[in-house]
Amino acid sequence: MSSLRLVPGTPEAVLAALSEVLDGTGRPFAPVPPDPAAAERVRRATAPDEPLEDGCAVVLTTSGSSGEPKGVLLSREALVASATATHDRLGGPGQWLLPMKPYFVGGLQILTRSLLAGTTPVVADDLAAAAAMTGARRYTAMVPTQLTRYLDTAPDALRGFDAIVIGGASMGAELKARAAAAGVTAVPAYGMTETGSGCVYAGRPLDGTELALDDGRILIKGPTLFSGYRLQPALTKEVLQDGWFRTQDRGRFVDGRLEVVGRVDDVVISGGVNVTLTAVQARLLEHPEVADAVVLGVPDQEWGSRVVAFVVGKAELETLRDHVAETLPRTWAPRELVRLDELPMLGSGKVDRQRLLDGVR
């Protein structure tokens, strides 16, 4: 068995380590963020001093948006399958702009695609660097929040890409319409660290990937899947069954395309009533005095779970409760409002749910 090496989570260090594992000359590695607390979480999740499972090329740490991070084992074959299928779907290999951290799967796979395409990735925090790109085809990836900001500030730069992969969170209908109206090719992607990055583009699986639903839960099968969780065989067995990965997401098929409708744990029981948190959140976002919102269930002795709305905006609690009750059961309306200047985000672009929960428990 190979031992695991920890490498700095910089684009240069990750690119070098990735190049070595892809050509078979380097040891498996785990990229480490610069923040000391995040680095310690990576150490706990990856356990570098323990023997490494066979076939692993990279161990990535999940973002831990709702709990303790896990070490996800990705093989060389899974990395290559994901990168190849992505290029096939987008129209062929190209040059990539890397605006995200390479210690998350989205950033790491941009580097993988670049290596396989023989192109030099352009590392930048904003789109100004796109002017230096020389590839015949140009790609980048970002989260919906970034796309929204760039549509406001740099729509011309967005139009310079052959495709922009949007991941990390759901891309709403309004944002899709805005991008299309601006002439921007934004491709919503669904996937996660365990699927080797996005494996469903615009509702359709990449070549080689299969989808199924089990009582609404999304199941995924294909060559991009992870091998298991680091040193957690019981958890691996629970989520990997007969080649299928049982996600924590719920979905449905609409006209043959997968539509993600929320997480399995997005339904909580509050006062004996099943409340779909994603539906409440979507309703809050329709209020003109709500700029952003997340709705979570918080353990409560009286209610079992109480529905808490974390809101960026001026709206008052009773106003929002009435707004929710116009289209949803009033029993679904939030019982508590936490007003924020902005939602806390993880480096992956996802909302830091655990931080929100820790602030109200």
Automatic annotation (TrEMBL):
Pfam families assigned: AMP-binding, AMP-binding_C
Keyword Ligase: yes
Entry's EC annotation: 6.2.1.26
Residues in AMP-binding enzyme C-terminal domain copies: 281-350
One of the record's GO molecular function terms: o-succinylbenzoate-CoA ligase activity
InterPro entries: AMP-bd_C, AMP-bd_C_sf, AMP-binding_CS, AMP-dep_synth/lig_dom, ANL_N_sf, ATP-dep_AMP-bd_enzyme
SUPFAM superfamilies: Acetyl-CoA synthetase-like
Domain of life: Bacteria
Gene3D superfamilies membership: 3.30.300.30, N-terminal domain of ligase-like
Keywords for this protein: Ligase
Domain AMP-dependent synthetase/ligase: 44-229
PANTHER family found in the cross-reference section: LONG-CHAIN-FATTY-ACID--COA LIGASE, NONRIBOSOMAL PEPTIDE SYNTHASE PES1 (EUROFUNG)-RELATED
Name under which the protein is recorded: O-succinylbenzoic acid--CoA ligase
